[in-house]
Write a structure and sequence with these properties.
211 residues; Rossmann fold; globular
């Protein structure tokens, strides 16, 4: 049976534009993000066999227009949420700009085993979670739409197109370069094709977005 996976980054979030937010899983969409979610739904003309979103509300809100368009579509919540590497309790009620210094310290330390405490995870834990998610996706059949996050999409591509994954400092450094080099705009779509021995991917599609 044919397997087609569409990875979709959620619409623009309040955190993306620098609004003050509380916990990562509760961050909602801006009005522009809601528009992007509708534009993604317009792009999808065939009812998906499965629609996946994460425990984070911004992916659920991004999926809402598609589920209104195809109300009988099967849905599942998967643990493909964003990589939260800073302790949410420490940064409750802050903006992305106020967290910038700590983020720079985290990425410059480049320690794949470091965890910042409750509610955060190490890079190795994150990558293991992504590996499990990809294995699950490969077992799906039909047309699957996945609403997820920027780091998750990068890590999936990192996993799929490397011959061997190593959970070490060198590979973490390479991922750090990838996150800076590979821009995945809000509402962007990447199509994966698992119908061949080697996975194939489309370009990062954004032509359906008005802005």
């Amino acid at each position: 049976m044919m397997k087609k996976i569409w990875l979709i980054r959620h619409g623009e979030s309040l955190s993306n534009v620098g609004e003050r937010t509380n916990y990562p899983h509760l961050v909602g969409l801006t009005s522009r993000g809601e528009l992007q979610a509708c534009e993604v739904a317009d792009k999808i003309t065939k009812k998906p066999d499965l629609v996946i979103y994460t425990p984070y509300i911004r992916t659920q809100l991004s999926a809402k227009p598609l589920l209104e368009k195809f109300p009988t579509a099967v849905t599942e919540e998967w643990p493909l949420q964003e990589f939260t590497y800073l302790n949410p309790e420490k940064y409750h009620g802050t903006t992305r700009y106020e967290r910038k210094a700590e983020k720079l310290i985290y990425w410059s330390n480049c320690d794949p085993t470091y965890s910042d405490g409750d509610g955060s995870e190490s890079y190795n834990d994150f990558l293991a979670r992504i590996e499990r998610g990809i294995k699950q996706l490969k077992n799906q059949n039909g047309f699957v739409v996945v609403y997820t996050h920027g780091h998750v999409i990068r890590a999936m591509l990192w996993y799929l197109f490397l011959i061997q994954i190593k959970h070490d400092e060198d590979r973490f450094k390479r991922y750090c370069h990838l996150r800076q080099a590979l821009s995945i705009p809000n509402g962007a779509i990447i199509k994966l094709d698992f119908n061949n021995p080697e996975a194939k991917m489309s370009e990062i599609l954004t032509e359906h977005l008005s802005s």
